[in-house]
Amino acid sequence: MKRNRKTKILATLGPASNSEDMIRKLFEAGVDIFRLNFSHGSHEDHKQALETIRKIESEQKHAIGILADMQGPKLRIGKFKDGSIKLEKGQKFRFDSDPADGDETRVCLPHPEVISTLSKGSRILLDDGKVHFEIQKKGKGYLEGIITAGSKLSDKKGFNVPGTILPIPALTEKDKTDLKAALKMGVDWIAQSFVQKPEDVIEAKKLIKGRAALMAKIEKPSALIQLEEIIEHVDGIMLARGDLGVEIPPENVPSVQKDVIKMVREKGKPVVVATQMLESMITNPQPTRAEASDVATAVYDGTDCVMLSAETAAGDYPVLAVEIMDRIARKTEEDDDYLDMMEASRPDALNTPSDAITTAAYYVAQDVEAVMIVNYTNSGATSLRTARQRPEVPILCLTPHLEVARKLTLSYGVHTVHDKADPEDFTGPARHAAKIAVSNGFAKKGDRFIMTAGLPFGVKGSTNILRIAKVEKE
Q1: Which domains does the chain have, with CATH numbers?
Q2: Which residues of the chain have pLDDT under 50?
Q3: Is the entire prediction scored with pTM above 0.70?
Q4: Among 242, 258, 262, 429, who pairs with 275 as Cys (CB 3.0-4.6 Å)?
Q5: Cα 202 to Cα 196: distance, rounded to the nearest angstrom
Q6: Element (H or E) spanning 439, and its range?
């Protein structure tokens, strides 16, 4: 199942897309890795979806990744007597710990740690930033202030507190239960929500114990302050622009996106750009021009992967959304400016023999006009280093470990093949790789390709050989 693009697509499953027929159509349309959103649905629902994906994977003989997204602590207000209230700018309002239904003057804020942390002058943004509240007075169990923006507020709306690090654990008890279930199911990635500091991901890493890769969702400004340390402890990063875009000025989002992608790429780890990418396609058969440009911008920035949320989980046109995202990514990657941008932003080589080999492979592939770069890898690290270079040609990853093949499905340009062959010398691997490349549509007779591997074979972290090879026969 060869993809004619290097940027990967992550799609969320939900009521609109969790049937076997729809999951198959989504995969055929271009999905590389599926997201199971543990904020919704039961464990049994997610398990059934996972088993369906594994069935399609077996039929297609192509690794498919599965990411389990943890809900994290959801900050929400209480209920109103009539379900909602009208607001006016300058209106006095109060948040308190009284569980009674609210009215036009007050509502319950059932998070005592938030009330205790905030102070006079702090802001609370509600309903994805549609309502703004500024604190003027604080007392025991309450916050009083005025509405500075917004006209309506309804039951259980979420809220954000920009510029404040909250004393709330990133993993709730629900998350720990969901995490245990997801790992038992056999997911490939865990996405952790509400990450504020390195200690949050260190805790998750201890619970995962190497049974899946860990992705930190960057949706709090506090995470940006310690982003480099967070990256060191995780296997990948998701830039969740929804909550992040509420808590930082909107004019900062584009530059933050570029900075995050650059930093994660330099570390040789995959990065996903998520949220509101083709949001109008939840109800419309085509995106807005701005949304198409947004997807293209993420591709120009060099992201490994772009994500669809409600577009595929609950939208009216899930398959069409994937097809359009696929077309936008392919068209962008064909642009000469895109190639120039990838070249200009290429990170410096790291001071390791393996990185020297993969960096050399990139340049040699250009010089000899190779059609692909082949990595023999046990851990997947060689393919991650190769993807870091953002080569113009595909990366064919041959690994004896299916879990490694699945994990790499969201990495830039990497086509993974679960290959149990154990070549005895460095002539055998070239012939073997050529055969796989031809069968997967990456090469034909006479084509050159670059191959990296480690001798002795099967030893983790031993990438030490680069070879220019040629496809001798179809």
Answers
A1: 8-73+170-335 (3.20.20.60), 84-160 (2.40.33.10), 353-470 (3.40.1380.20)
A2: none
A3: yes
A4: 242
A5: 12
A6: helix 428-439
